[in-house]
Amino acid sequence: MTAGRPLDGVLVVAIEQAVAAPLATCRLADAGARVIKIEREGGDFARGYDGSGGVSAYFAWLNRGKESIVLDIKDAEDRTLLERMVERADVFIQNLAPGAAARAGFGSKDLGKRHPQLITCDISGYGEEGPYRSMRAYDLLVQAESGVASITGSPAEPGRVGVSICDFATGIYAYSAILEALIERENTGAGRNVEATLFHTMADWMAVPLLSFEQQGLDWPRVGLGHPTIVPYGLFQLGDGDSVLIGVQNDREFARLCNEVLDQPELAETYPRNVDRANARDAVESAIGAVFLRHDRASIQAALNQARIAYGFLNDVAALSEHPQLRRARQPLPDGTEIDMVAPAAAPNEPGRRLPPVPELDQHGAAIRAEFAVDI
Question: Which of 227, 295, 323, 364 is catalytic?
Answer without folding.
Answer: 227
